[in-house]
Design brief:
Radius of gyration: 25 Å
Structural class: alpha/beta
Distance between the termini: 34 Å
Mean pLDDT: 83
CATH topology of the largest domain: OB fold (Dihydrolipoamide Acetyltransferase, E2P)
CATH superfamily of the largest domain: Nucleic acid-binding proteins
Shape: elongated
Strand content: 15-25%
Number of domains: 2
Helix content: 25-40%
Number of helices: 7
Largest sheet: 5 strands, mixed, barrel
Length: 253
């Protein structure tokens, strides 16, 4: 009997359904270890950025056939103007791909501490085409309007949802709270959102075991009034509001 109980404890401990659920915010998904880096382009003015573009264009023309007669003179003038403002055009241009790679990593890298964790996260759902096996799918984003009226969030601020609990996303940007196992699993998908095709690039995937929704107008109005602050405040406040009103889709069935 003791051996049976020990074996059962091991099975339960390894089952996501019995694991401790951690309430997280969207910032918890970001790999903070790659967010800090020197970006020499960050403090440049629009005019200085435009000057660098001119340098790249003029250098390309000079390397090609039949460059404009005044290209070399114009290039020297633009470089001198930038140099007078403390901008080393040649060095900055040599760094542009290095910085581009660092920016890309900062936008895409997920927090390894959350990989495989059982979490609860609030946000706004975007319906997506079903998986090949017919499982309903969706995407969770931190702010209403993302991917339609405003651009998509960075990949590490988007979660691809596999709705294995039986709930199906049918309303665009419906506020929900999902519970399930989240994994760092980068996916890319192009799909129709509202009135155009959007590239949905997500760092995270989640097998959803529970969905909480607002299905009463009074609750929805309360949510709008109480969570009009930052995206993280909205997301963090969803679970408690839903719990108080008993709007857990899984629990209702």
């Amino acid at each position: 009997m003791r051996q049976f109980i020990s074996a059962l404890a091991v099975i339960i401990a390894g089952n996501p359904l019995f694991a401790e659920v951690a309430q997280i915010n969207w910032t918890d998904l970001i790999d903070q270890g790659v967010q800090s880096y020197e970006d020499p382009f960050r403090d440049l003015s629009y005019e200085q950025i435009d000057g660098l573009r001119q340098v790249v264009k003029l250098q390309s023309e000079l390397e090609g056939e039949n460059p404009p007669a005044d290209a070399a003179e114009t290039l020297a003038e633009v470089k001198k103007s930038l140099s007078d403002e403390g901008v080393d055009a040649d060095w900055l241009i040599s760094q542009r791909w290095v910085i581009a790679d660092r920016r890309k990593l900062a936008r895409e890298a997920g927090n390894p501490a959350k990989d495989g964790a059982i979490i609860k996260l609030g946000g706004f759902v975007i319906p997506a085409p079903a998986a090949e096996d017919g499982t309903p799918m969706g995407y969770l984003v931190p702010e209403r309007g993302m991917c339609s009226h405003v651009p998509p969030p960075p990949p590490n601020q988007m979660v691809r949802l596999r709705l294995t609990n039986g709930w199906n996303a049918t309303k665009m940007h419906e506020p929900i709270v999902v519970t399930g196992q989240i994994q760092i699993q980068q996916t890319k998908e192009r799909m129709m959102v509202v009135d155009g095709v959007v590239s949905m690039n997500a760092t995270f995937s989640m097998d959803v075991s529970d969905v909480q929704t607002f299905d009463q107008p009074a609750v929805r109005r309360s949510f709008t009034a109480e969570h009009s602050g930052s995206k993280n405040e909205r997301a963090a406040g969803l679970p408690n509001k839903l719990r108080r009103n008993g709007h857990s889709q899984t629990e209702k069935r």
